[in-house]
Amino acid sequence: MKLQSLQFSTYALAEPQENETVALIEQTYIEAFPKAERRDFLFVKDEPRFAVYVFYYEGQYVGFITAWTFDLFVFVEHFAIDKSFRGRGLGGLVMKLFMCQTPLPLVLEVELPKDEQSVRRIDFYKRLCFVVLPQEYSQPPYRNGDEWLPMHLMAYPDVPFEDVKRVIHRVVYGVREVQ
What domains, with CATH codes, occur in the chain? Predict the structure, then answer.
């Protein structure tokens, strides 16, 4: 796999659209994230800080990143590779390309290391030089009545935890008072 063969574009999901790319993104999104870790599909409308980045390898869709760009950092809300391309090293290439295109520090949420898959996910980001921020963190629920999810924040490079947490909770999740 060569980085030169990897391309990406920003994709607008603001309006319902019937096309293959939207269907592929939605399928990957639903397969990659449990309901508690995803918002209702079509993501975020009319929010200039939010973007969907779609990645292609040799012209074929391989995955996406949803991200929020703030003044001091970029929050990667979701990152997923289509299941037919997993295990080929494309996830690392996609994230490296995104890191190269983003001048700000990157922040993302990861599950606590409770099983083999969550440990592998954390190790994946560590290999890309992300660090686990040591402070306690919980992801607010996407839906009323759902529970807060204990998670870790990871960053590349390090960032001021409380400031980042406050922005993510208020803007991304709509939490008025940060816990």
Answer: 3-172 (3.40.630.30)
